[in-house]
């Protein structure tokens, strides 16, 4: 089996071709492969399907849970397809577990990364779409009790086929983020957990975002989180529709939000290595439940 590794703004994923997998990726196997000390190490695993010239993608977190969408994962998959000469410069479609996206490799950057654009679909602010149990309609600036000493959070739900919880703050404070973001991520008000973004509006076309990702924990960057933060800022009237620089701890991505809340994401991604996994290691992973 060959495992490929790609990075996008400090977010790293492993890519495997579905046809090469010798067994299913159980939670135990995902955890072992993604472990940064004893495994290959990554923020998740992308299972690609390229049979018949059609592209499918499943996205697994290190704990084995499945993510419906990942902007960084999609761009890494695009870099993987480009590296195998399966795509060039035109638009192509990738089928995910819940929907489809269109993508395009735009150019090669000086460091060898590819600038890749993804049409992420339409943002929904309905609680029902984001798996928020208390409210089915739009959830904008809703006060949610976090329990214990974590206080409350004014949340905004966003769905891009995966769930997001956006919290706008006047200042990004590390202690506050580390206290409240994990509580929001696993809050029982969300049917299947949620990705969390703490967001500061940094100007008329800029946001600063810290991210706590479902199934991962804190992550340096997330493409879908960048999109959710920008979409919520436009829906709340904090920004006007347009193009925005979303600054994350791992780097910046460009996000475009229309007046109908359609979302486009543009950012770099590159492949860093491909590794053949030897038979003894494959056998060790096979022994895991």
Describe how the helices and strands are arranged.
Layout: E1 2-8, E2 11-17, H1 27-34, E3 45-49, E4 55-60, E5 66-67, H2 71-83, E6 92-95, E7 100-108, E8 114-122, E9 142-145, E10 152-159, E11 163-168, H3 174-185, E12 195-203, E13 206-213, E14 217-219, H4 223-235, E15 242-248, E16 251-257, E17 262-276, H5 279-286
Parallel strand pairs: 2-3, 4-6, 11-12, 13-15
Antiparallel strand pairs: 1-2, 1-17, 3-4, 4-5, 6-7, 7-8, 8-17, 9-10, 10-11, 12-13, 13-14, 15-16, 16-17
Q: Nutshell version of this structure?
A:
The chain is of the alpha+beta class. The chain has helices at 27-34, 71-83, 174-185, 223-235, 279-286, and strands at 2-8, 11-17, 45-49, 55-60, 66-67, 92-95, 100-108, 114-122, 142-145, 152-159, 163-168, 195-203, 206-213, 217-219, 242-248, 251-257, 262-276.
Characteristics:
Diaminopimelate Epimerase, Chain A, domain 1, 2 domains, 289 residues, alpha+beta
What does the largest sheet look like?
8 strands, mixed, barrel
Q: How much strand?
A: 35-45%
- Secondary-structure content class: alpha+beta
Number of strand segments: 17
Largest sheet strand order: 1-2-3-4-6-7-8-17
Average predicted local confidence, pLDDT: 96
Assembly form of the protein = single chain
At the fold tier of CATH, the topology name of the largest domain is: Diaminopimelate Epimerase, Chain A, domain 1
Percent of residues in helical segments? 10-25%
Number of helices: 5
**N-to-C SSE string, H for helix and E for strand:** EEHEEEHEEEEEEHEEEHEEEH
Shape: globular
* Radius of gyration over all CA atoms, rounded: 18 Å
CATH class of the largest domain: Alpha Beta
Low-confidence stretches: none
In CATH terms, the superfamily of the largest domain is Diaminopimelate Epimerase, Chain A, domain 1
Number of domains: 2
Tell me what the CATH architecture of the largest domain is: Roll
In whole angstroms, how far apart are the ends?
Answer: 19 Å
